[in-house]
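Thread title: Can someone regenerate the structure for this chain?

I was given the following input by a collaborator and told the matching structure tokens would be attached. They weren't. Posting the sequence so someone can regenerate them.
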Amino acid sequence: QVQLVESGGGLVQAGDSLRLSCAASGRTVSNYNMGWFRQAPGKEREFVAAISRNGGSTYYADSVKGRFTISRDNTKNTVYLQMNSLKPEDTAVYSCAARAGGTILTVPRLYDYWGQGTQVTVSS
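Best answer:
Regenerated them for you:
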């Protein structure tokens, strides 16, 4: 059992930066692949970024490459999403998720645990 809690969301202007955090408890986060997903009103939940158990591999959606960076600190049981050059189209509820196994990290239904989400709003 893993509990995930996101934080760091808020209201920012286009071009600003924001860092999201995902704190895990129950099991050490090092045992899990971790991903960030987002969902905007009226849209499907979409993959944003993912990172392997030891941080050796990272994956990004084309829409955020070059702007977002996923990282993890397993000693703190925490995963981060650094978001730079934010755009209005980045506005969404951002959720972190944990997957115990497998190699496909871009598909939401394959993840085992989810946080409650944090709202990110980017104004123009």
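The longest strand covers residues 18-25.
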